[in-house]
Fold this sequence. Notes:
By secondary structure, the protein is α/β, with parallel strands linked by helices. The protein has two domains: 151 residues, P-loop containing nucleotide triphosphate hydrolases (Rossmann fold); 122 residues, Up-down Bundle (Zinc Finger, Delta Prime, domain 3), CATH 1.20.272. It is built from 16 helices and five strands. The protein has a five-stranded parallel sheet. β3, α6 and β4 form a beta-alpha-beta unit. α12 packs across α16. Bound molecules: zinc ion. The site of zinc ion has 8 residues, from α3. The site of zinc ion (ZN) has 8 residues, from α3.
Amino acid sequence: MNGILRNALDTGNIAGAYIIEGAAPEAAWREADEFVSALFCAAGTGCGSCPGCKKYFARNHADVMVIDGEGKSIKVDAVRDIPSFVYRKSYEGGYKAVIVAGAQDMTEQAQNALLKVLEEPPARTVFLLLAQNAKSLLPTILSRCIILDAHSNVPDAEGRIAEEFSVSTAAARVMLRAAGGDYYKARIYAENGYTEMRNDMILALGRLFYAKNMAVSVTEKLILKYEESLALAIDVALIYIKDVLGYKHTQNEGAIVNIDRIEEIKKHAMLRDRTLVGTADLLAGFTVRSCQCPGANKKLMLTGTLFDILEVTI
Ligand SMILES: [Zn+2]
């Protein structure tokens, strides 16, 4: 658990509202679960087996209210019941907790409705706003909350990932570096088979960089192996190109993510910037466009992108 939350529980000095910020929603949820279960736990630890914990984890604790946008916008209607929940007495005689997951998706109107409650903080009630990016919330909300990082404080992240996903510690280290040290993001990479995905992306990029025979069809096949997680695969390719560009300009091996592929990185660092930057721009553009038009034919868009890349590499 985040040190600030742990300390709040230990001292009983619990603030009225926290924002738990984390790129991966499950990271913020894990913090919230650890904290809120401990709050209702008979042992004060979030043991998982006492009545308070059981009710909480079954998501039917009468003193917990959860609002979850699940990726969609949270409109004012969704927060309308907060006042009647927070200003009544607690069922179990202890704290009450309101969790807003995907808080960054609250409309301005919803945020203003929530703000009214935060301005008149109800007794023994804690708000947890789980947000991918706290900055997308209104400054007036931010000023009333303690902002925490969901991904901080994961001891021995490397060992945990290695064990959980049966990969070597070297491979786990690469995934953590790719995730900028974020344990939960590294887990997403691990779940999606980062090493194989990365190796395929390097193979695909090599084909494109040198405009090899059948470059587009071979590359397409390699990338479409990851059709279900296309954005992630492209992201992995971009991390590799960043490695190449970084090495090309600084010769600093210490900053490389994919350190186990240093030989290819050195080789690709001989390519022109136009090739490397152009490829990265076009791949990033593909991700943006495919997010903006979810109904579009992604395969067709990908083919177009690959042909565009050949234009900058030849
Ligand atoms: Zn318990």
